[in-house]
């Protein structure tokens, strides 16, 4: 895969670190953000091939950040990660015209992340991925 | 035979000092299938009524020994006879007498001379009404029984709603930690150098330790413990409850400030105490959409520990304030709750012989306070057992 520019947004330091390390290992360039506001700043500063957003964050949640980004740049490829056990993340993210390309349920698996990312970059939308 | 719905023959007591009258009434009503008894004055009439418990009493007024007015009064005062319908049958025809008869509790008033057919019609009507009343009462008591059973069912279901929320919160936190375990493990597998492997295994261990800590705090949580009476510190139960919700609180940027005053231990069921706290905190979290402060004050008031929870949430409309403890009342959106929470809390508090109050200001927040009995008099010896401020 070509070298990608990736933005990872998560309030959990450990998860952020894992995704950053993984993507860098795969040879991509990674920017991290700890909440929605920082993510929007980063989004406005540069172009990302794909953005990973955690759903549960203080301030804006993943779905809200997604909607703001998609309104300003509809073609932006975006994946939401959620550890929720309710269908809240699903309904607030997917049941709308402005939605991410993919919703992944945690616990995350790096191989699953990779295969979802490849599909999304090919233009395929995957709405529910329970492994 | 004139029978009631239970196939019982209706009994009628005739009280009159004129034998002719007794014969006339008795003969005619017996022909209609009723079972008749008679008495010659008020005193005898009252005694017979107590013994026989007739379905209807036909009562003359002017009698020796005890007149009809006095007998009527006694019959209405007596627990066994007060519900027996009385028909006054008398030669006293003045309107004042009629009114007096009804005021004394008679159901009907018939002036002498009378038509036997009319008396028969009136007796039959009263028996009919009595039967209808009885069947309505049995319908009502059946309905009440159903409602009571339903309430009991609700109480059984209620803890599951709280459990559901808990499972969601616990599942979310464990998923995140498991992500870290698995992710670091996968990264270690991809690593080229020993040093790198070590780094990821280190991170993996950290996540495992956190899972262990989390599971330990769950173990301390008394939600599923059988009810038991013991000494406990309300503060540490509260802190443990908060620990489990910590992630959710962080994510919603909700600050918790706990202060205590004149504290002591409680002798009671710590599970009840933690369930109450859990429900109130979950409600406060829902009320504070994003960001907010939950101030908790625990203090002693004689034989009670008062725990106050003041949130900076949306508040409750005055119209809804007295409804919030009702079963199935909720201001939350459909997906969020069934309204069982506060009802359950109130039931638990009632069971613990405490009480609960709520004050609320729209847009400013609510204060939920509950009084939990200290149980055995602990306060003199354990005064200031807990000193904690944050």
How many strands, what sense, and barrel or not for the largest sheet of chain A? 6 strands, parallel
Residue share in helices of chain B?
40-55%
Query: Would you state the CATH class of chain A?
Result: Alpha Beta
* Helix-and-strand structural type of chain B: alpha/beta
Label the CATH architecture of the largest domain in chain B.
2-Layer Sandwich
Oligomer classification: heterodimer
The major β-sheet of chain B equals: 5 strands, parallel
Query: Which spans of chain B of ≥5 residues are poorly predicted at pLDDT below 50?
Result: 332-339, 380-390
Principal-axes geometry of chain A comes out as: globular
The largest sheet of chain A has its strands arranged as 2-1-3-4-5-6
User: What do we call the CATH homologous superfamily of the largest domain in chain B?
Assistant: Histidine kinase-like ATPase, C-terminal domain
What top-tier CATH class of the largest domain in chain B fits best?
Answer: Alpha Beta
State the separation between the terminal residues of chain A, measured CA to CA. Answer: 22 Å
Strand order of the largest sheet of chain B: 2-1-3-4-5
What is the N-to-C order of secondary-structure elements of chain A (H for helix, E for strand)?
Answer: EHEHEHEHEHE
């Amino acid at each position: 895969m070509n070298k990608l520019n990736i933005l990872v947004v998560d309030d959990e330091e450990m998860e952020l670190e894992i995704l950053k390390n993984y993507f860098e290992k795969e040879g991509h360039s990674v920017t991290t953000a700890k909440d929605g506001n920082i993510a929007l700043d980063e989004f406005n500063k540069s172009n990302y091939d794909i953005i990973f957003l955690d759903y549960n964050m203080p301030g804006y949640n993943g779905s809200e950040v997604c909607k703001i980004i998609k309104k300003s740049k509809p073609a932006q490829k975006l994946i939401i990660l959620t550890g929720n056990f309710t269908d809240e993340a699903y309904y607030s993210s997917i049941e709308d015209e402005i939605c991410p390309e993919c919703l992944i349920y945690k616990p995350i698996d790096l191989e699953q992340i990779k295969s979802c990312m490849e599909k999304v970059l090919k233009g395929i939308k995957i709405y529910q991925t329970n492994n | 035979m004139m029978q009631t719905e239970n196939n019982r023959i209706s009994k009628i007591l005739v009280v009159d000092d004129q034998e002719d009258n007794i014969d006339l009434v008795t003969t005619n009503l017996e022909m209609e299938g009723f079972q008749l008894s008679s008495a010659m004055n008020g005193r005898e009439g009252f005694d017979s009524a107590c013994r026989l418990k007739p379905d209807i009493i036909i009562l003359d007024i002017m009698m020796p020994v005890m007149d009809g007015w006095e007998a009527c009064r006694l019959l209405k005062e007596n627990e066994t006879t007060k519900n027996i319908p009385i028909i006054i049958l008398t030669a006293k025809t003045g309107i004042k007498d009629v009114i007096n008869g009804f005021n004394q509790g008679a159901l009907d008033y018939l002036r002498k001379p009378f038509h036997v057919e009319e008396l028969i019609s009136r007796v039959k009507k009263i028996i009919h009404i009595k039967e209808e009343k009885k069947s309505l009462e049995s319908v009502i008591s059946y309905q009440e029984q159903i409602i009571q059973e339903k309430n009991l069912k609700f109480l059984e279901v209620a803890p599951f709603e709280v459990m559901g929320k808990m499972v969601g919160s616990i599942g979310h936190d464990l998923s995140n930690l498991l992500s870290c375990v698995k992710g670091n493990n996968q990264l270690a597998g991809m690593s080229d150098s020993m040093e790198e492997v070590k780094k990821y295994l280190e991170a993996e261990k950290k996540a495992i330790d956190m899972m262990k800590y989390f599971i330990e705090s769950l173990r301390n949580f008394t939600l599923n413990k059988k009810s038991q009476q013991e000494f406990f510190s309300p503060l540490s139960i509260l802190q443990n409850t908060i620990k489990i919700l910590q992630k959710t609180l962080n994510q919603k940027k909700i600050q918790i400030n706990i202060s205590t005053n004149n504290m002591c231990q409680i002798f009671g069921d710590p599970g009840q105490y933690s369930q109450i706290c859990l429900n109130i905190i979950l409600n406060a979290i829902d009320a504070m959409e994003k960001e907010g402060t939950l101030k908790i004050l625990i203090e002693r008031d004689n034989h009670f520990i008062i725990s106050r929870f003041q949130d900076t949430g949306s508040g409750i409309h005055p119209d809804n304030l007295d409804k919030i403890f009702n079963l199935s009342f909720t201001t939350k959106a459909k997906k969020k709750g069934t309204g069982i929470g506060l009802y359950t809390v109130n039931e638990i508090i009632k069971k613990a012989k405490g009480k609960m109050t709520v004050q609320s200001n729209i847009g400013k927040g609510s204060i939920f306070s509950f009084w939990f009995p200290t149980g055995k008099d602990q306060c003199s010896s354990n005064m200031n057992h807990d000193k904690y401020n944050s």
